[in-house]
Amino acid sequence: MVQTTTDLEAIVSRLTHTPATLRSLVGDLSPDALEYRETEGTWNATEVLYHLIDGEIHDWIPRVRIIMSDGPDKRFTPFDREGGLKRYGSWPAAAALTEFERRRAESLAALAALRLEPADFSRQGIHPEFGRVTLEQLLVCWVTHDLAHVAQIARVLVRHFGERIGPWTKYFSLLRDR
Questions:
Q1: pTM of the predicted model, to two decimals?
Q2: Which residues pair with 137 in a beta bridge?
Q3: Cα torsion 138, 144, 147, 151: sign
Q4: Burial of 64 (0-12, 13-18, 19+ CB in 10 A)
Q5: Beta-ladder partners of 66
Q6: E-strand spans in the chain?
Q7: How many other C-beta atoms are found inside a 10 Å radius of the C-beta of residue 168?
Q8: Cβ atoms within 10 A of the Cβ of 78, count?
Q9: pLDDT at residue 4, as a whole number
Q10: Angle in degrees, CA 112, 100, 104, rounded to 5
Q11: What is the CA radius of gyration of the chain?
């Protein structure tokens, strides 16, 4: 539970590190690694980047602003989780990574400009599926979302490279179900 400005600093720190983490994971990958899918219908690393860009534009900060607004309507606009794939699907991974870095910097600047106080974390918005949610829940979800997609990309890369490790497969739980 976020209760202090130190907790907000931890959230901002995690959000700040995500672009560099992603750059280190995918910045120099070959096209076959970037396009690798675990199974049909799953996202490859580049598609995860498209989704993350779209979230910076249409999800996180717009919802923070709704919660922090003085207006009576606190309903969030539904977020199209696959909208980024449609909007950025033709972009190369390098361009998507740079765009994500730029958009995340804008989001963090917008978050800082709000000068959030601990009392703000209990303010609420209305999620289209979950109903009332707090600013605290939204901010922690943003961090969790980042970490989940970093883990997803790492898992995809383990499986991509792991196809060629021969008998060592037995030592990697992420490869045993293959």
A1: 0.93
A2: none
A3: negative
A4: buried
A5: none
A6: 124-127, 131-134
A7: 10
A8: 11
A9: 54
A10: 5
A11: 18
Strand partners, 131: 127
In 3-state terms, what secondary structure has residue 95? helix
pLDDT digits (tens, 9 = 90+) for 84-104: 999 999 999 999 999 999 999
From its phi and psi, is residue 131 left (phi > 0), alpha (psi between -120 and 50) or beta? left
Instruction: Kindly give, in sequence order, each residue whose CB lies less than 8 Å from that of residue 126, ignoring residues fewer than 6 positions away.
Output: 74, 75, 76, 132, 133
CATH number at residue 70: 1.20.120.450
Cα gap 33→78, rounded to integer Å = 32
The 10s digit of each residue's pLDDT in 156-165 is 999 999 999 9
| Residue carrying the six token digits 């303010």 | 123
Please compute the mean of the pLDDT values over residues 15-34 and round it to a whole number. Answer: 97
Confidence of residue 176 (pLDDT cuts 50, 70, 90): confident
**Measured distance CA(103)–CA(91) in Å, rounded:** 15
Helices (runs of H) and strands (runs of E) counted in the chain? 8, 2
Distance CA 23, CA 87 (A): 21
- Domain holding 156, by residue range, is 5-176
Q: Minimal CA–CA distance to 108: which of 96, 98, 100, 119?
A: 100
Coil, helix or strand at residue 65: helix
Both structure tokens of 156: 């995809």
- Total number of domains in the chain: 1
Identify residue 42 by its one-letter amino acid code: T
